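Curious: explain these tokens?
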Amino acid sequence: MTVPPIYSNAVNSTIPLDLLPPAKPSYTLLQATQDITAPEGRSIITLNWSVPNTNENVFELLGNSTGSADTLQTTYDPIILGSYTIYEVINENPSGLGNTNLSADANNDNDIIYVDNTANFFVGDIIQINDGGKKGYYKIISIIGNSLVLSSRILNSGPFLTGSVVKTVITQQKVEGLDYTIDILTGIILTNAGQFLNGNDIIIEYQTELQDLSNFAVYRSSTQIQKGNGYSSITLNDVKNFSGTTILDENIDKTQASYTDNTLTEAENGQNIYYYLFALDQSTHQNVSFGNEVLVETLPSVPQNLTSNSYDSRVIIYWDKVKNVNVNGYNVFRSDGDVFDKANAVQINSILIDKDTTSFDDSFANTTNRVESSVVPFPINGLKYTYKVESVDSTTLWDTGTANQTATQLENTVAQRNL
């Protein structure tokens, strides 16, 4: 008798479609408006960005040439049309170029390496990291102190331990069609016989399509967050582990390209605020882009307690000093009548009023910082004027709203003057 096989319960396993981190989303527009229902005004910040359609840059060693027609394949696909460049390494040990050692381990996922010295290394160089057992190739995009910033993360070629050799190599850029053909859907590369020398390494720089974007996440901090070792940009862990981080929204839909922060308070007027934006892909094998950091100066507070004193053809406006750290000074605007008309209001100070000054003289007596009377006439007895004072930093606009102060020239002043 044949005994039928007995099977265990089934378990599902899904191979992720896309194993690379998304490219960092780029800001397209930053908007600051002011909630004038708050007595001192309150900044509302809107972040706008472009939705990435590519993954991060990859620099990959494909293999060695045999000198004949070789078939090679990238680890990741599909490749973005026009994003790829193939190089042949024609000299791994040139003289007079950068040659040093790692001063710290270079781990997978890092995109900065720390070296003993950066002499004879230059931006744009292609370098090899070699620990005697394995090697990887990368391109330098920045040199900071004794660190080299790479155009791509160290992926499956690492990690490389302290002491590994780091050196500039000589490469030759190859020509598609003449030297090789490529299928961008599969990442399969066919080299043409005789176009690569036997034993030379073949490397490729490329980007792949982002196929599994899941969502965006936005965070805020009043203090700039420091980057972790081994990274050129802020990582999600950097932000989440920082005590001063405010979580704004961690599940912004992948089709949404903006976020409005309506949670700032009046106490944060005129302050430096840092926002951090991340793109995340599917949760079954979640990869996270580097964070895009942006510094926003919130709008300054509305000047408070405006008062005025009226004299013969003269109005002096007073206000409380705005103590925001980013305030540079003040402007004063005047409108005819007892209702402020923004469309017809005119600025009456000729230069920015110092941030420590809390008054302005609108009259012939002000020869220091008032515009000429040919531009804006001096106050006329018997008429009403309405004034607005704005506090100014690098982001504010006066029509975001300030308190009004109406000043009326007194009739009895005219009569007394004419006696």
Notes: Residues 411-418 form the longest helix (8 residues). The longest strand covers residues 135-144. The chain has a mean pLDDT of 88.
